[in-house]
Amino acid sequence: MGRPLTDALDRPLGTLRVSVTDRCNLRCSYCMPEEHYNWLPRGELLTFEELGRLARLFTDLGVSRLRLTGGEPLLRRNLAELIARLRTVAPSADLALTTNGVMLSEQCAALRDAGLQRVTISLDTLRPDRFLELTRRPDLPAVLDSIAAARRAGFSLKLNTVVMRGFNDDELIDLVDFAAAVPAELRFIEYMDVGGATRWSADRVVSRSEILARLAARFGPIEPLPARGAAPAERFRLTDGTVIGIIASTTTPFCRDCDRARLTADGTLFTCLYAGSGVDLRGPLRGGASDAELIDRISAVWRNRSDRGAELRSTARDRGVFIPVEALRRDPRLEMHTRGG
Ligand code: SAM
Ligand code: SF4
Ligand code: SF4
Fold first, then answer.
1. Which of 19, 194, 301, 305 gets the highest tally of CB atoms within 10 A of its CB?
2. Domains of the chain
3. Which of 13, 255, 256 maximizes ligand 3 atoms within 8 Å of its Cβ, making it the mutation to test the pocket?
4. pLDDT digits (tens, 9 = 90+) for 140-176
């Protein structure tokens, strides 16, 4: 390959997050708090063959990390088949999955055999009553089983915790201890005002510095680890050697290093979590476009990219809900659960 593909701010294309379904079996209040959603029509979802083809083209353009997400990716039937296909078309890519963990334990072996290497499981609370309140489903035991199963299956394992003031900010220490015992690397995520977070308010965000202060009060001095490149988490070491991450998207955005493209389950390409619109790849795919034509289309999108969504949001005065619920109803692709986290 020639010169790496870079965007208007000189950022390379390195990561592709693929949302394989917009459906979810949980209703986390920070992501899907509404009673009703407009789903993408099933016939418009990309097939595994189409996803494999696009993954191959994206890796040709420089993507070295592929992450499957959703909605809840394990709701997509035969996901292991897709993993095996991706392993074949992109043999050297780092392949990862983000899941809420509810259905993981039963699929661990098949996913591992298919070539999945890394798994991130969302875990916001260790208390069953809070889990039920947050997600509207009584599934914490299933998630905890899956964490143990993922460990046994030998996955490289991370846990994601969205921190919300007044909900789980009194569990930071418990979650660190839990993750260390698994063992898995825990990452605290600042509550973001992405599309779908219609209950967001600034006072519910617990900042990176507040998280660090609380951990320091319990664990002592915290050592920052070397810079992360394009990865969203900053990593820190506690005095006992435990490593944790913080994704400070809200108070300390990292747009200048962002190498991530996102593909919705119906084949719309987004270049930012906060972008108002994306570019259709399904139409050309199904209309008989050649590899060269698809590569041209994707390259043009990336070259023109100047997104700095979280940075721009952080300068907003009187920051409130980013996208009103009426706009989300009109265009489900504005939702976090449609474009993947
Ligand atoms: N359903 C899977 C899960 O929950 O892991 C994958 C999709 S979910 C959209 C991906 C990630 O986005 C999860 O770790 C979730 O916690 C995070 N997320 C969703 N809404 C968020 C918000 N408002 N602020 C910060 N993170 C959020
Ligand atoms: Fe929760 Fe993930 Fe489902 Fe959103 S997509 S409601 S974060 S489980
Ligand atoms: Fe990347 Fe957009 Fe997130 Fe910034 S807000 S880090 S540009 S996806």
1. 19
2. 15-339 (3.20.20.70)
3. 255
4. 999 999 999 999 999 999 999 999 999 999 999 999 9
